[in-house]
């Protein structure tokens, strides 16, 4: 039998109490099981580990958890699940559980539940929208309902059958059941003259859909919803969970604890089985716990019946048969038991995070019978159950947060919960409590621990916390000396003061708004570095808001630094050159000046493009000169660089010429390409950079080419697509322009390839260049060309025959040697073969050309 379990549900039509963990039909011993896996806290990539685990053991990966917990859900064979217990990366593995909702299901109507907890006092004056975000973890919310302010959400679910299913997240978070919409309206329906109104009217609602159209959903999907809320804890202040059931799950508990630690107030329904949330054993962490209601991190809410919105037991009997102002006997509670000394004790005495409640593990009691609220498809419906009681408390928490500020950690969450408990009305309150027909009557609470009734305090219009912004100095800027820190602060009533704090120490407090909120800060006695400025605004209600920025204190004006670029002064200098330098200052360099000896040759006042100056060396006699640069900062501090000796020789290096010409050629399919490489040097034999070489092509080709020499004085010109009929082309240097006059008479070619001005470049097909190596290469070219060029021309048989002839002749007789690229050989057999090849190749090329081979 499967150990898959279902949790209790009370639907919107009638109150139903189900067995908590019913067994689902039989499965094979080796069938896949659904599990939730929690990883160790120091793991970083839950998806990577999940993929690896499932890949090794088989199965299907489900939801990935990265925020509330680190882990994933999966469906795996039992053998693979058992192997997980030995994985050092895994903290724990638990079975997934099917869960369901705790529920029973124009002009604006004030619901009796809202009226009963004094919620109507929020509706005095102009309609408002409560500036708080509430997540409804449920069956979704009707996203187009006119009475609900739905601002976003998500949807987690599993599709497919038990053996083969897929976990999905999408944006279809609309409500297809109605339960989530009913809950959302109780918490936050708008005050808009239609339908109903919620406890926190118009609060922003986030639909976290984890239950399907039948209000069913897996625990793994619910944990995914909690993980999603935790990731948005800076936005979402309250989360309502009107769902639950029986069981024990440390992973579920860990997820909620982490989300509460992020500052989210969780409100949970107590459940509808009329039993202790700890179960009959009164022990936490056992299979008869009601989860999540049993967790001390959540505010658990029980239910009572009210039919007229008033205390006093004067209303009619509810549709479920409950008298007005009585405890709903379907609601779960928190019991105590007697210890060995016959003393009443409870697990919550020492485990409720310091929260004191007359209801022990129950924070508050809220209306939960015949509650009229919003429903799916734009409608309205009546429902009962602790599912309806819980969102009253969620709305109450939102009101408190709007008045007093949100929680940022678990301690602040518990402070909010304790404030709501203390602000409630006692069970026996003579004005607002429940009905007792007899003064000696013991209330219908099995252990007599009677939690307070949640209550909306008579607080008038909500006084929001102030806003504050530091306007000067600006974040990230540098400051020095006496600095005025100014802020703007506003409040819906009034700001009473603004305190200024520097690195955690109070600088002072401004209590006079008339001249603006500001404070002078004398920084002259402080060390340079990064400082944090905080401004804290306080309003008439004592609410505070703070903001902070970081600035760089720079009281010590450092000397600038400057260094010449030695490369710009290297070698023998002539003509006009560019001298460059690097300069820096903590407050900015104002200018850089360049000197030759004591003579200023240039001033650069802009760093754009680098610091530089032009030096006309022709104004100086040939010789050795000391070059320096100075940098001046905004404080008029000036430093000088280390000098560099520069050699000026304009007399020798007054011309330039071609110092080498080299030619080369390569085959390009059925054409060939000629390349000429030119070296330009000055009269002293040094390469000339930036010289423009111009030349013309002749002997079978026409046109001109131009190129600029690089740092080595070299440039190349190329002529392409030369016909194979052209055996040789010529390139002639016609002019060289640049930093020196062109002395064509000095042109030279030391390797004898040319006269230094003109060079002849032979075709790679020239017979004078054939060798055994090159003919073998040509044979290969013909073979490759065969299939590419002639397949559709009808020449294929003849071309293949020519190719075979070339290949056959390209083989050197066995035992003979010939050096590659060598025209002559002392071996008469090899020499004869080479001559035959040359003749054959010439004939072959002519045959191909005659047939129109281009």
From TrEMBL:
The keyword Hydrolase applies. Residues 55-100 form the Inhibitor I9 domain. Its EC number is 3.4.21.62. One of its GO terms (biological process) is proteolysis. Residues 132-421 form the Peptidase S8/S53 domain. Residues 814-833 have a biased composition (Polar residues). The keyword Protease applies. GO terms for cellular component: extracellular space. One of its GO terms (molecular function) is serine-type endopeptidase activity. The active site is at 138 (charge relay system), 179 (charge relay system), 387 (charge relay system). Keywords: Hydrolase, Protease, Serine protease. Belongs to the peptidase S8 family. PANTHER family: CEREVISIN-RELATED, PEPTIDASE S8. This is Subtilisin E. It comes from Novipirellula artificiosorum. The gene is aprE_4.
């Amino acid at each position: 039998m499967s150990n898959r379990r279902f949790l209790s549900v009370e639907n919107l039509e009638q109150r139903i109490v189900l067995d908590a963990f019913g067994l689902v039909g039989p499965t094979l011993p080796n069938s896949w099981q659904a599990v939730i896996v929690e990883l160790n806290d120091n793991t970083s990539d839950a998806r990577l580990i999940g993929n690896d685990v499932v890949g090794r053991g088989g199965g299907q990966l489900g939801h990935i958890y990265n925020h509330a917990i680190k882990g994933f859900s999966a469906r795996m064979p039992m053998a693979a699940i058992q192997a997980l217990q030995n994985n050092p990366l895994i903290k724990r593995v638990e079975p997934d559980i099917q869960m369901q909702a705790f529920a029973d299901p124009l002009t604006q109507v004030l619901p009796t539940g809202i009226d009963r907890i004094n919620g109507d006092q929020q509706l005095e004056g102009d309609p408002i929208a409560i500036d708080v975000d509430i997540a409804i973890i449920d069956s979704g919310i009707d996203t187009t309902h006119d009475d609900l302010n739905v601002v976003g959400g998500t949807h987690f679910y599993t599709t497919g059958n038990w053996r083969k299913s897929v976990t999905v997240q999408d944006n279809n978070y609309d409500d297809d059941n109605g339960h989530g919409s009913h809950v959302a309206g109780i918490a936050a329906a708008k005050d808009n003259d239609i339908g109903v109104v919620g406890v926190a009217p118009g609060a922003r609602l986030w639909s976290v859909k984890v239950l399907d159209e039948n209000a069913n959903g897996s625990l793994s999907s619910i944990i995914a919803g909690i993980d999603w809320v935790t990731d948005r804890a800076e936005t979402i202040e309250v989360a309502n969970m009107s769902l639950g059931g029986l069981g024990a799950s440390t992973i579920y508990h860990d997820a909620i604890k982490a989300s509460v630690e992020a500052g989210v107030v969780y409100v949970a329904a107590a459940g509808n089985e009329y039993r202790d949330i700890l179960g009959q054993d009164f022990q936490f962490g056992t299979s008869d716990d009601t989860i999540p209601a049993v967790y001390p991190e959540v505010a658990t809410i029980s239910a009572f019946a009210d039919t007229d919105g008033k205390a006093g037991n004067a209303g009619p009997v509810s549709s479920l048969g409950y008298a007005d102002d009585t405890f709903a006997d379907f609601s779960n509670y928190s019991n105590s038991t007697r210890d060995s000394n016959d003393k009443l004790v409870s697990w919550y005495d020492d485990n409720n995070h310091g929260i004191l409640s007359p209801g022990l593990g129950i924070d508050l009691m809220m209306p939960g019978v015949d509650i009229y609220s919003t429903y799916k498809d734009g409608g309205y419906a009546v429902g009962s159950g602790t599912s309806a009681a819980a969102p009253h408390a969620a709305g109450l928490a939102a009101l408190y947060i709007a008045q007093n500020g949100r929680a940022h950690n678990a301690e602040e969450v518990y402070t909010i919960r304790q404030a709501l408990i203390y602000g409630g009305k006692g069970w026996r309150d003579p004005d607002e409590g429940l009905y007792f027909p007899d003064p000696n009557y013991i209330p219908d609470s099995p252990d007599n621990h009677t939690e307070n009734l949640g209550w909306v305090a008579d607080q008038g219009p909500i006084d929001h916390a102030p806003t504050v912004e530091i306007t000067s100095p600006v974040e990230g800027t540098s400051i020095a000396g006496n600095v005025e820190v100014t802020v703007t602060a506003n409040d819906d009533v009034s700001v009473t003061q603004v305190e200024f704090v520097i690195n955690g120490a109070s600088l002072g407090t401004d209590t006079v708004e008339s001249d603006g909120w500001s404070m002078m800060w004398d920084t002259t006695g402080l060390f340079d570095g990064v400082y944090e400025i905080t401004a804290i605004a306080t309003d008439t209600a004592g609410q505070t808001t703070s903001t902070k920025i970081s600035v760089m204190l720079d009281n010590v004006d450092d000397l600038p630094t400057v260094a010449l670029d030695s490369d710009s002064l290297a070698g023998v200098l002539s003509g006009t050159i560019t001298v460059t330098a690097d300069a820096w200052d903590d407050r900015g360099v104002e200018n850089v000046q360049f000197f030759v000896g004591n003579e200023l040759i240039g001033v650069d006042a802009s760093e754009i493009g680098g610091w530089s100056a032009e030096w006309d060396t022709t104004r100086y006699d040939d010789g050795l000169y000391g070059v320096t640069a100075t940098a001046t900062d905004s404080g008029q501090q000036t430093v000088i660089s280390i000098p560099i000796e520069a050699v000026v020789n304009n007399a020798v290096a007054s011309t330039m010429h071609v110092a080498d010409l080299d030619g080369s050629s390569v085959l390009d399919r059925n054409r060939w390409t000629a390349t000429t490489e030119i070296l330009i040097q000055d009269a002293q034999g040094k390469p000339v950079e930036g010289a423009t070489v111009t030349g013309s092509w002749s002997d079978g080709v026409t046109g001109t080419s131009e190129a600029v020499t690089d740092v080595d004085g070299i440039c190349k010109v190329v002529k392409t697509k030369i016909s194979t009929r052209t055996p040789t082309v010529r390139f002639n240097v016609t002019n060289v322009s640049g930093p020196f006059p062109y002395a064509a008479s000095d042109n030279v070619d030391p390797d004898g390839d040319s006269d230094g001005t003109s060079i002849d470049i032979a075709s790679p097909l020239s017979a004078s260049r054939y060798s055994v190596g090159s003919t073998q290469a040509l044979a290969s070219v013909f073979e490759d060309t065969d299939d590419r060029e002639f397949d559709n021309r009808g020449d294929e048989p003849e071309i293949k025959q020519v190719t075979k002839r070339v290949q056959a002749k390209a083989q050197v007789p066995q035992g003979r040697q010939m050096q590659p690229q060598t025209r002559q050989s002392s071996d008469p057999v090899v020499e004869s073969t080479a001559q035959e090849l040359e003749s054959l190749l010439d004939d072959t090329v002519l045959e191909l050309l005659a047939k129109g081979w281009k």
